[in-house]
Design a protein that fits this description.
The chain is α/β, with parallel strands linked by helices. It has six helices and six strands; from the N terminus they run E-H-E-H-E-H-H-E-H-E-E-H. Helix 1 packs across helix 6.
Length: 166
């Protein structure tokens, strides 16, 4: 099972918009993947809604596509909070992850991807080596909230093809 997570709780985030492109590319490959954001999840404690999400989504997922916006040179604290609430072994250990950084700046959250890679490695997650930093994302998405940059779409397609074989 593949799961795409936009690692923020901001509504209508650029990460979620990019996630829709990943979802469509996977669909073309015959793979169904749900896209989730952290908005609407009660992450103040292990609430019933969080436990339901953990059981229904995180535990059965074998391959995660994690889209991380840049928050202060790293990945969002809300995503870290989600990880901290999880049953780590059941949700993460031995699974695989594909990482993409999303930023309106020039770096594409490459530092945040490094931080997240360290955390995931600690939890025994196998991180695909092709981590894609998407820079200046606000220039790559059109008025309809669709990623329309051909070079970025080609890079995502290549990354997804590699991840399917990973």
């Amino acid at each position: 099972m593949y799961t795409i997570i936009a690692g923020t709780n901001r509504l209508e985030s650029n990460s979620a918009k990019i996630g829709e492109s990943y979802q469509q590319i996977l669909h073309k490959q015959g793979i169904q993947a749900e896209l989730y954001t952290l908005s609407g999840l009660d992450l103040n404690y292990r609430s019933e809604s969080f436990i339901e999400f953990e059981t229904r989504v995180l535990m059965p997922t074998q391959k995660f596509i994690l889209l991380m916006p840049e928050y202060n040179g790293s990945y969002p604290g809300i995503f870290k909070t989600m990880i901290d609430l999880c049953a780590i072994k059941e949700c993460w250990s031995g699974k695989k992850a594909l990482l993409t950084g999303v930023s309106t700046g020039r770096g594409g959250n490459i530092r945040g991807l490094e931080h997240l890679t360290g955390s995931l490695n600690y939890m025994n997650v196998f991180v695909h080596p092709n981590r894609l930093p998407i820079s200046l994302v606000h220039h790559l998405i059109d008025e309809g909230a669709v990623l329309n940059d051909e070079k970025t779409l080609i890079a995502i397609e290549q990354q997804v093809e590699e991840f399917i074989k990973f």
